[in-house]
Structure formats: structure tokens, C-alpha cells
Write a structure and sequence with these properties.
44% helix, single chain, 7% strand, 135 residues, two-stranded antiparallel sheet, extended
Length: 135
């Protein structure tokens, strides 16, 4: 689809949309995921057994270029993501606290990888041997 728009001041813009957006599947790096989970658990977070991420996201494209994880966490609501109710819930003190904990766990994971050579090596090995769509 191609469209040209004119604006009152004489400017023109042209846009071209692809008919379908293609997102690659997410390749979770197991070493990063295990480090993140251990760090989050050290901060009091509990994980359900066999928790898996499954959604359409452009993060999947990134995960094919660099080692990646896409942690999800609860902000204390049952409202669906991308809804007005979720937006309201995201502004609560509970959501703020849970976001800080998730952020600290992510920062701790980055520090582990950057400061401990053995972790960096494991991350690289995992990246070279992706999960083949198990996520």
C-alpha cells in the first residue's frame, strides 16, 4: 500500500506499508534466562514451573542477532496487556515496586555476564546453539 499525503503548508510525505509484518520466533538464551531467574529469586520473586514466554514480538528478531531474554513479570493485575485497565494498573505503587525488582534482576544479570568470564562464554555457546523454536 502506498499513500501520499499533502499538508496545508505545502509539505508532502509518502509512506509505504508492507502488507504483513514478520517477526521471528524468540530465541531465549538459556544461560541468560537462568541467571535472570536466580537473580530475581534472590530478590524474592517466585516463578511458576515451566514458565515460557509466547507472544508476537519484534524482540524475536533481535534475539537472532544477539543473545537475548524477554523476561515477563507481574505488576499485580489480571488486566490484559495493552488495555486501558493495564495502563491504570501500571501506575500503581505495587506495579512500580515490581518493576524496580525486575529491573534490578536484569541489572544483576548484566553485571554477572560482564564481570564473570565463565558466564560470557556460556552465553556465547548458547547463542551458537539456539533453542530451535522451543520457546
Amino acid at each position: 500500500m502506498f499513500k501520499i499525503c499533502s499538508f496545508p503548508i505545502g509539505c508532502k510525505v509518502s509512506m509505504e506499508w508492507e502488507t504483513a509484518t514478520r517477526y521471528s520466533h524468540l530465541e531465549t538464551n538459556n544461560t541468560l534466562a537462568e541467571l535472570y531467574q536466580a537473580n530475581a529469586e534472590s530478590l524474592g520473586v517466585s516463578f511458576p514451573p515451566e514458565a515460557k514466554f509466547s507472544a508476537s514480538t519484534d524482540m524475536g528478531n533481535v534475539s537472532h542477532v544477539v543473545p537475548s531474554i524477554h523476561p515477563m513479570y507481574s505488576i499485580g493485575t489480571t488486566a490484559p496487556n495493552h488495555s486501558h485497565a493495564f495502563t491504570t494498573a501500571a501506575a500503581t505503587e505495587e506495579a512500580h515496586e515490581k518493576t524496580l525488582i525486575a529491573s534490578k534482576a536484569m541489572a544483576m544479570t548484566a553485571i554477572d555476564v560482564l564481570c564473570k568470564q565463565d558466564f560470557m562464554g556460556k552465553v556465547r555457546i548458547d547463542f551458537k546453539q539456539p533453542n530451535k523454536g522451543e520457546n
